[in-house]
Design a protein that fits this description.
590 residues; mainly beta; six-stranded mixed sheet; 49% strand; elongated
Length: 590
């Protein structure tokens, strides 16, 4: 007797002489599946494979459904996440996935799964069908698997089966001896950005009992999970159109499409004779991979605001001594920053403009700034208005030493347009949530502390803390709008550097320069949580970023008309700050 079993599978459970047919999919909720990153679909899914050069339409068997399993964007906290025993023998999940090595390209970073208990019988043979879509590339060895563990028997008697894995040919030589290139025997090896055909898998158990059965997919290493694999499972092979990109099995095994029980000329998991060429089977279905990618992109909304705040301190207000005037004098100036934010995965532009006024009372110069910031990163466009109050106080203990302190507050909104694929077509959902930011600053400047030839050298230390809150919001438009919870993020930076001024041959003009080292005490951003409405909840880890970087700048400053003009080109080598920007100002004193 043969029983079909999967998560989306039809399982035949034998009671005595007769077998009852039970659909696990129909009982997905009531049968208490444990799951993460799982979507049930009875329509088609469009996969963009081959680095964007190929399109595959993946459909469930006619009249049936399939389950898509993609890793959720949260850290992999251990193999117990999968309801699997960690006390098993060398064929357990931990050993097969990591191959007993510290190679980061092999170690799971995120996982998605579906799992529950079944009563299985030793007389029966169980089967299911599966298909693997790899959105990643070598050497990141993402993969998909299933496991069967006896709940009542020897924990070492379980089965863990690695179905497919993205080729890791660029990584270290294999340590595992379970199969070619370190993969277990029979593992389907898939090329970068590849997809397999539908395949059938069989298993049996040695004795009757209650077994925990799990199907899953995992990312390997990726700190930002933009390239999540998908495991599709169903009770029978479904359909797939388009080119099968990659999919090789060690030891000359057959890859997808053919089954020993299927005549030579019949296609399994290929084109369906009832489906015209290029026609999508079924209706619309939301891409799990594109869901993750598009949701991750919204994290730039808060990041762009933090970058704007950082630019305020590192740009327009990076040289407070330049705006100090004589005791009893008033001052007014205009300033602005325009630049690029292209570090890491970010690609955008930032800017600010402000009007400033101040008066030197003797014991302190008090400055007031009113300004506007903006930032654009792909489909995210933020705008804000701010006020900043600064005080520059001479420190009597040392000539030329000044202490600067400041408070900053900003309010604004962010236009967020999230694009994603639905059956190969681009859909878009949008929102315009509000945000608020406050910050506090403390700084010491030792003006003209040292003269080197004609250069005046002024060392400084600067500390800055800022906190930003993005209100929760619900998108409108599109096929799969999402609800996002509020986010709160903050950072504290300390930097030390030198300002230099060198006279030029142009009367009353100096070459100005700056070099500084920066350390940020927080190493990642806050998580993003919410729900694709009516589909799935999500919890996306914050992005990890560099905590140390260098900033440098060079420019020209001098008297023009009745005031002083300054122009400086700045840049950083890495970090959660703008990559390059131009700072300009014009100040008059009266």
């Amino acid at each position: 007797m043969r029983l079909n079993l999967t998560a989306l599978i039809t399982v035949l459970i034998s009671t005595s002489a007769e077998a009852a047919e039970i659909s696990l999919l129909d009982g997905f909720d009531s049968w208490n599946w444990a799951s993460a990153g799982t979507t049930i679909m009875d329509q088609s899914y469009t996969a963009i494979t081959g680095e964007g050069s190929s399109t595959n339409t993946i459909s469930p068997p006619n009249g049936a459904k399939m389950i898509g399993i993609s890793p959720v964007d949260s850290s992999f906290s251990g193999y117990s996440d999968l309801s699997l025993s960690t006390q098993t023998n060398s064929t357990t999940l931990e050993r097969i996935l990591s191959n007993n090595t510290d190679d980061i390209y092999l170690i799971p970073s995120t996982v998605g799964y579906i799992s529950r208990d079944f009563t299985l019988q030793a007389d029966n043979s169980y089967s299911f069908s599966w298909l693997y879509v790899s959105y990643d590339y070598a050497p990141f060895a993402d993969g998909v698997f299933y496991s069967v563990f006896d709940k009542d028997g020897d924990p070492g008697a379980g089965q863990f089966n690695l179905l497919a894995r993205t080729d890791r040919k660029e990584t270290i030589e294999a340590i595992s001896q379970t199969g070619d290139d370190g993969y277990p025997e029979g593992t389907v090896i898939v090329e970068s950005h590849g997809v397999t055909a539908w395949r059938k898998e069989e298993f049996s158990v040695s004795e009757d009992g209650v077994y925990s059965i799990t199907f899953g997919s995992f990312n390997a290493d990726d700190p930002v999970k933009n390239y999540s694999p998908i495991l599709f499972i169903s009770d029978q092979p479904g359909n797939i159109t388009g080119e099968i990109v990659g999919g090789e099995v060690p030891n000359d095994e057959t890859v997808g499409g053919e089954d020993e029980n299927v005549p030579d000329d019949e296609i399994v998991g290929g084109e369906d004779e009832n489906v015209p060429d290029d026609e999508i089977v079924g209706g619309q279905i939301y891409s799990l991979a594109d869901a993750m990618t598009s949701l991750i992109s919204t994290k730039l909304g808060l990041d762009s605001m933090l970058t704007s705040t950082s630019t305020l301190v590192n740009g327009a207000h990076s040289r407070p001594m330049s705006f100090r005037v004589a005791v009893g004098e008033k001052t007014f100036w205009l300033a602005g920053d325009w630049g690029k934010d292209n570090h890491g995965s970010r690609s955008g532009s930032i800017g600010l403009k402000e009007a400033n006024g101040g008066y030197n009372f003797g014991f302190a110069q008090i400055n007031l700034s009113l300004g506007k910031t903006w930032a654009k990163h792909g489909g995210i466009d933020s705008n804000g208005n701010y006020v900043m109050v600064e005080g520059i106080v001479p420190v009597e203990a040392l000539e030329g030493l000044y202490a600067t302190s400041g408070l900053y507050f900003q309010r604004g909104d962010v236009e967020i347009n999230r694009a994603y694929l639905v059956s190969g077509s681009v859909a878009e959902s949008s929102a315009r949530p509000e945000f608020s930011t406050w910050g506090i600053r403390a700084r010491l400047d030792w003006e003209n502390a040292h003269t080197f030839k004609t250069a005046q050298v002024s060392p400084y230390v600067d500390a800055w803390h800022s906190r930003t809150k993005l209100n929760g919001y619900t998108e409108t438009g599109g096929n799969y709008a999402a609800r996002f919870d509020s986010r709160d993020d903050n950072f504290t930076e300390v930097k030390a550097g030198l300002n230099l001024a060198v006279p030029t041959n142009i009367p009353k003009f100096d070459i100005i320069a700056n070099i500084e080292s920066v350390h940020r005490f927080t190493g990642d951003s806050s998580s993003t949580t919410g729900e694709v409405i009516g589909v799935v909840s999500f919890n996306l880890d914050g992005e990890k970023y560099r905590q140390n970087w260098l900033k440098g700048g060079v420019g020209l400053e001098g008297k023009i008309g009745q005031g002083k003009a300054s122009l400086m080109l700045n840049g950083t080598n890495q970090g959660r700050t703008a990559s390059s920007w131009l700072t300009a100002s014009y100040q008059i004193a009266f």
